[in-house]
Specification:
Blueprint: H1 3-11, H2 18-30, H3 35-48, H4 52-63, E1 79-83, H5 91-100, E2 106-110, H6 120-124, H7 136-146, E3 148-152, H8 159-171, H9 177-190, E4 195-202, H10 211-227, E5 231-238, E6 246-248, H11 250-260, H12 266-283, H13 291-300, H14 303-314, E7 333-338, E8 343-348, H15 350-360, E9 376-379, E10 386-387, E11 392-398, H16 404-412, E12 414-417, E13 427-431
Parallel strand pairs: 1-4, 2-3, 4-5
Antiparallel strand pairs: 5-13, 6-9, 7-11, 8-10, 8-12, 9-11
Helix pairs in contact: 1-3, 2-4, 3-8, 4-9, 4-10, 5-11, 5-12, 5-14, 9-10, 12-13, 15-16
């Protein structure tokens, strides 16, 4: 079998066999297939796409490229949750303790942020002492005992994906549904989940900008899950503006605590309930009950907040932040950015807000960059709100004097109209 023949085959629009895909992924992971040939294959896939059988075979080959995690020692159905990435997306930190408070095991591995999207691990590390590195035995024991654990991803999990993603990033082949779907699902399945709930973001701050593309990606991932015997549900949610009012790390933890204390921040609550409801549904622990009402009650009676406090404590963090958010890292400077216009906000570009947060130190341009956990943005006005000229739109938190370009980028994220504005739905569709 020769790589050049397989490139030609895919270039001409033909379907690759499972054996051929295994040859490609194994060869590239080991270094036997050079970058220039793999880049050509990726471009052929980008233009000719892949069949469902090819995508399933690609996902499986990527799973088998490294270690997989066996969670069979954890009692009950292990339901994982994955977001395709967004700005102010703190949903994992709301739904994990919420679902765990019902006795459902939440065994979660999460990543760090890069670019304009935030990472769950970075947010947790803004809590003093919080440990995201547990041994496999500690991880399993913690979930069995406390029903919740959250750690960083293993270094040798799906190494093929790490190599492929780096190559896609520099060859203009990132935005390919078969490649995105196999990348996400290979990691989720290698992590040992029995069932998966996917939060597929759509809009200007999401990877998929259009609802049509988001639906196509969601359906592809649900199909992969089905082909590999994993129950999978995709919830398509809005990312045309940041989620909630806080963007950053420590300030997002603060907002998680607000939600778990019962504060109703509409978009965060509605999306969190939709994701949590489907996680509970796949766990099969509460069949035939009104799951959403049960979840609301767990917030109202304080059980979800108690589980969050317990979660912080057992992973070495300072659980006192739940009662005193001022124990979280605090920025030196807080700059109010005031509106130059009057009118209703009809657009708030999430990607620009995420980029501003990154420039303030809350995110990374490169993987090696350090994070300033105290940096971030607090939004005071969002889509649909009426704003008067000189009214505060947002507050920027950082540890240096900001330049005009950062203020101007924040202001450019907002657009105004004279007429009242209808908000987008928070949840567009559920694909199961």
């Amino acid at each position: 079998m020769r790589m050049v023949d397989l490139i030609t085959k895919k270039r001409d629009g033909h379907e690759l066999t499972k054996e051929e895909i295994d040859f490609i992924i194994n060869g590239y992971t080991k270094g036997d297939i050079p970058d220039y040939q793999m880049a050509t294959m990726l471009m052929a896939i980008y233009f000719n796409s892949m069949s469902k059988e090819e995508i399933s075979a690609l996902t499986n080959a990527m799973i088998n490229s490294g270690e997989t995690i066996d969670l069979s020692q954890i009692e009950g159905v292990k339901v994982d949750k994955h977001s395709t990435g967004g700005v102010g997306d703190k949903i994992t930190l709301i739904v994990a303790p919420l679902v765990a408070s019902l006795g459902i095991p939440v065994a979660k591995m999460s990543g760090r942020g890069l670019g304009h999207t935030g990472g769950t691990i970075d947010k947790l590390e803004s809590i003093q002492g919080f440990n995201v590195e547990l041994t496999k035995e500690q991880f399993i024991n913690q979930v069995n005992t406390h029903k919740i654990a959250l750690v960083g991803q293993s270094g040798n999990l799906v190494p093929a994906d790490k190599k492929l993603y780096a190559l896609r990033d520099i060859t203009g082949t990132v935005n390919s549904i078969p490649l995105i779907a196999s990348s996400i699902m290979s990691k989720k399945i290698a992590m040992g989940a029995d069932a998966i709930v996917l939060d597929v973001k759509t809009g200007n701050g999401a990877f998929m900008k259009t609802l049509e593309d988001s639906k196509a990606l969601a359906q592809e991932m649900v199909d992969i899950g089905k082909s590999l015997n994993r129950k999978t549900i995709a919830v398509i949610t809005d990312m045309n503006q940041p989620l909630g009012y806080e963007v950053g790390n420590a300030n997002e933890i603060k907002e998680v605590i607000q939600i778990l204390k019962g504060e109703y921040i509409e978009d965060l609550v509605e999306i969190s309930l939709a994701i949590a409801e489907n996680m509970v549904l796949l766990s099969k622990m509460y069949e035939g009950e009104n799951i959403k009402e049960k979840l609301k009650l767990q917030i109202e009676n304080g059980q979800a907040l108690n589980k969050f406090r317990e979660f912080i404590k057992i992973q070495g963090g300072n659980e006192n932040i739940v009662d005193n958010v001022n124990l979280l890292p605090q920025a030196k400077y807080h700059f109010e950015i005031k509106s130059l216009n009057s009118g209703y906000i009809n657009k708030l570009e999430a990607e620009k807000i995420g980029h501003v947060a990154m420039l303030l130190g809350a995110g990374r341009k490169k993987k090696e960059d350090n994070i300033d956990h105290s940096a971030g943005v607090t939004l005071k006005k969002k889509v649909g709100d009426y704003v008067k000229e000189n009214e505060v739109l947002a507050i920027l938190h950082c540890n240096f004097e900001i330049h005009e370009n950062i203020k101007n980028e924040l202001l450019s994220a907002y657009s105004f109209t004279n007429k009242p504005v209808n908000k987008n739905p928070y949840v567009y569709e559920i694909i199961s």
